[in-house]
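Suppose a colleague, Dr. K., hands you the sequence of a protein chain of 151 amino acids and asks what its three-dimensional shape might be. Before reaching for any lab equipment, you can write down a predicted structure in token form. Begin with the sequence itself:
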Amino acid sequence: MDKLLAALKRNRHGHRDWLVGLIIYRHGLRVSDACDLRWDDIDLPKRTIIVRRLKGSTDSVHYLERDEVNGLKLLRRQQQANGIKGAYVFINERGLRLTAWRQAWPGQWRPRGDIKNAPLTASGGRATVDEKRHGRPALDGARGATPGSSA
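The predicted structure, expressed as tokens, is then:
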């Protein structure tokens, strides 16, 4: 995990990307949970964060470690220095919140016409979006296994 976080720090928006990765890893967030994180969900003096779960899960309060608190303070200072006062913690260059579909997973999904470099399925055909998202069932089906069986 340390190698991944170090690589995230070397990105164009290194501090933000490192902080997203750290918070997702430590608190078990989905990407969409992290993208929906708001500044009013974070209490820096108490070092807590309210995690508002999607998909019907229960919301919870998590404690923040010192490096997370310092990282959040720095991120807020950077946003204020750039004249950005937004409700969301993780924002893009335009001041809009990150979305789980594009910013979090760049290059994962190609337009339908660009299948030249798309990955192959187990059966040799080009993968659809559903096969990328649910790769295991697509592979099981290609081997003749039924869902739930261990082929």
